[in-house]
Every structure is written in C-alpha cells, then in structure tokens.
C-alpha cells in the first residue's frame, strides 16, 4: 500500500505536511472506508487515557494501535501538566498523535483539528493499525463524525480586521456590534468566549450571512467507515475525587513553572490556550495574586465544574454511544475486561 510507506516519512513533516499527506492518500484511491475506528470519550479524570493505553497495548493481534488526541487543549505544546497530557513514558508504550503538536500561541479550531485527525486516522489504517480517538472535547468528536457547516474560507485580511476591531472596541462594544449584524450568535456565545465572538464577526463580514445561517444549511462530509463509539461515565463522586487529586499532582510535578514559562510568552487573552481549565488560576499564582492553597482550591473547583459540564454533554449529545461505568477506583482492570471483548468483536466484524 503506497500510503503506508509514505506515512512513515510524513510523520516528521509537522502539521501542514500531514494535512497534505492525507490529501495525497485520498487521491491515490486508498480505501479506508471499511476499516474500524474506535472513539473513546468521557469527562476529565474518568480514566479514558489509561484505558486507551491499555486497549492500545492489547490490540497487537490486530496490527497494533495508534492513540489520537481529541482534547482541544492537549494539542498545545507548552501545556502538558495543566492539561493532563499523557506522559512521555506513556506515549512511548503506544504511538500517540496530536498531543502537543502546535504552539499555545496558535489557534486550533475544530475544523483544523478534524483535518489533522482524519490524516492520523488514515495514517493508522494505512499502516495496518487501529486508530483510537480519545478525548473529552465533545465538539471535536461531533465535527469528526458529522462534518462541518460549509462556511467558505475567511480571507486573512478579514481575520486580521476582526481582531483589530475587538482591540479597538473592547469586549462589550464588540459584542454589541456583532449583535447588530448577528443577534443570534451574540446572544448564544458565552461572555468569555472571545474566539467564537471573533469567528461570528468574521463570517458575517466575509460572507454577508451569519454563522447560524450557514450551519442551518447542514454539515459537510460525514465520517466514512465503521466506528465503535464508547463513553466512560463513572460515578460522579469518583470523578470529583480524581479531579481533586489530579490538581495536587500538577502542583507537585511543577505546573507553576510550566505556567510561568507560558506566561512569559505574553499570550493574547483571545487565544484558546489561555482558557484551558486552570490556566487563569495558575497564572494568578505565578503573578503573586493568589497563594498556593487558594490556587489549588480554585483549580479543583474549576476542574469539577468542567467535568460536570462534560457529563451533561455526553449524556445528552452522545446518547447513542455505548456507555460504561467504573467501580471501585478510577480505572479498574475489570473495565478493560468488559470493554476489550466488545472492541475485539467490533474489529472482527468490520
């Protein structure tokens, strides 16, 4: 298979190179539509990363596996600890992709991630490996499966103008200006989501139609090929404990130093990386505006709130996914013993 050989060289080409690589595979006619892909989702601290690792190691009989990140913040290179990215040791056990692949000073949109994920899924399948897409960003998983609304590409000058306008007007006046042109987006977008506000302004400025109007036209190409869609929904109290423990470990492992290095880059407040759970609180600690004890408590609270929102999303938006709970600990071996036969049957029949 031509693409299998090309993939080994394409891995070192970076983000843009891999986007070009998958386009070349499609042109070569490499049929990936009948191979199985595993999607593994769940709230933060539910044990999905460790389960993906265990599944990946067990899939040797199917040619091995490749774990592909579907967490919107774990794509950023500088934020390993605060986003709870897999360790270098874990990444060495099973190939991991799309973890730390771009600078935190860049913007990874859902559309850009989808292109990269499709490239990695194609690469895994071309190499005879099973792709395991794992993460808790519901929007990423939805656009992977359903595609994106057919919004035309926004010219660079319009994107730059949107950011200048935000800087000139400030948040409240910018939102008011957007409301005069796209009241639906201005109302629906959360107050602190500067990226989506700017995106809505860009779309109406460049196309004359609002983003909701484009979205109502329907999504683009849906994901082709069989998928096993699994979601971990552990006991809530179990996740609360795991969230609290995770924050303490972050501090022990040096998250303050990590955030100090990130802060030294002087990131713009409209960058997605600045909105990663814990970044704002840890930056306050770095700047002397909070104590260690205060910071741990506030990050624990923010992490628990984030997990709660994820629970709600997966229960309502992923109702057709196969749900698994966990008992007596965050990730017991019994969960693997329950899930692996399901995965094995799926791969043998697709």
Describe what this molecule looks like in 3D.
Mean pLDDT is 87; it is low at 1-13 and 21-33. It is built from 16 helices and 6 strands. The two termini are 19 Å apart. Strands 3-2-4-1-5-6 form a 6-stranded parallel sheet, with helices on both faces. The longest helix has 26 residues, at 292-317. β2, α4 (88-93) and β3 form a beta-alpha-beta unit. The protein is globular and about 60 Å long. α1 runs antiparallel to α2 (14-27) and α14 (279-286) packs antiparallel against α15 (292-317). It folds into 2 domains: 36-148 and 221-348, 3-Layer(aba) Sandwich (Rossmann fold); 156-215, Histone, subunit A. With 350 residues, the chain is an alpha/beta fold.
Quick description:
This protein is of the alpha/beta class and 350 residues long. The chain has helices spanning 2-10, 14-27, 48-58, 88-93, 110-126, 138-146, 156-169, 171-181, 183-188, 194-207, 211-215, 236-252, 255-264, 279-286, 292-317, 333-348, and strands at 37-41, 65-69, 96-97, 130-135, 227-232, 322-324.
Keywords:
about 350 residues; Rossmann fold; Histone, subunit A; globular; disordered N terminus
Principal-axes geometry comes out as globular
N- and C-termini, Cα separation: 19 Å
Largest sheet report:
6 strands, parallel
Rg of Cα set = 21 Å
- Give the ordered list of helices and strands: HHEHEHEHEHHHHHHEHHHHEH
What is the topological layout?
Elements: H1 2-10, H2 14-27, E1 37-41, H3 48-58, E2 65-69, H4 88-93, E3 96-97, H5 110-126, E4 130-135, H6 138-146, H7 156-169, H8 171-181, H9 183-188, H10 194-207, H11 211-215, E5 227-232, H12 236-252, H13 255-264, H14 279-286, H15 292-317, E6 322-324, H16 333-348
Parallel strand pairs: 1-4, 1-5, 2-3, 2-4, 5-6
